[in-house]
Design goal:
Length: 118
């Protein structure tokens, strides 16, 4: 599975940003797989934003729930994040395939920089 993020790069503090993750080598509707967005601000650790299961169910980090929204386009095999970022960070999309009760396979995109600046 390969993932590729895309987005605008630079946003103003009052704007929302839309990021898209294009998936190849696998389907976003495959069972036992979930699709996530994670970000890492400079000098800080990674922060989970939200994830979506193959059936479309979504789960959000409670601290970001009010300003984040996940969506997907199964015809394009893409899932997307809309967020009021407020913080500069590198945003990653991620896929977790649950292989057995005790093992999984993780796949990452290369990340896309989002800079918040007026």
């Amino acid at each position: 599975v390969q993932l590729q993020e895309s987005g605008p790069g630079l946003v103003k503090p009052s704007q929302s940003v839309s990021l898209t993750c294009t998936v190849s080598g696998g389907s976003i509707t495959t069972a036992y797989t979930y699709w996530a967005w994670i970000r890492q601000p400079p000098g800080k650790g990674p922060e989970w934003i939200a994830h979506m299961f193959a059936n479309g169910d979504t789960y959000y980090n409670p601290s970001l729930r009010s300003r984040a929204s996940l969506s997907r386009d199964t015809t394009k095999n893409q899932f997307a994040l809309r967020l009021k970022p407020e913080d500069t960070a590198v945003y990653y999309c991620n896929a977790i395939e649950v292989l057995t009760d005790t093992s999984f396979s993780a796949h990452w995109g290369q990340g896309t920089q989002v800079t918040v600046s007026s």
